[in-house]
Amino acid sequence: MQRLTEQELHNLGMNIVGKKLQEKGYEFVAINSTLKKHPQFVLFKKGEPTIFVLVNVTQNIQNPEDYDVLWMETFKEHAKKQNAKIWYAGIGIANAESVDLPVFKNQPYYVAFNDFLTIL
User: Fold this and answer.
1) pLDDT digits over 102-118, tens only?
2) Which CATH number covers residue 78?
């Protein structure tokens, strides 16, 4: 069995978030799936401010919405300059058999993603 790379896990999370955003009626102005490049999604919806969506995939399915507060403060300054809102999508993805095992290609996995956290 081949384990998913960090980039493949990130892409899986991006797909989950992208579907949720489409269901909410948002248009994508920009999408960036490169690891550690933020934001991952820039959204547009008529009559609303621009929204930056930050996607973070973790194997922590108990608290996937935990994030680095200091880093977020820096990003908030960037968003304020752009008159944009920030949504944080923390997604936990873990092996369905055991959270102690990595996620493998073509094997079942568990997803923990409730909704977006509004940061700004």
Assistant:
1) 999 999 999 999 899 99
2) 3.40.1350.10
As a whole number of angstroms, the distance between CA 20 and CA 116 comes to 10
Residue 87 resides in a domain:
yes
16-69 residue pLDDT tens: 999 999 999 999 999 999 888 889 999 988 888 999 999 999 988 889 999 889
Tokens standing for residue 51: 């929204």
- pTM for the model stands at 0.90
**Domain of residue 70, residue span:** 6-118
**Three-state secondary-structure class, residue 70:** helix
Do the domain assignments include residue 1? no
Tokens of 72: 């977020």
Number of domains in the chain: 1
Q: How far apart (Å, rounded) are the C-alpha atoms in residues 21 and 97?
A: 29
Burial 45-67, CB ≥16 within 10 A → b, else e:
eeeeeebbbbbbbbbbbeebbeb
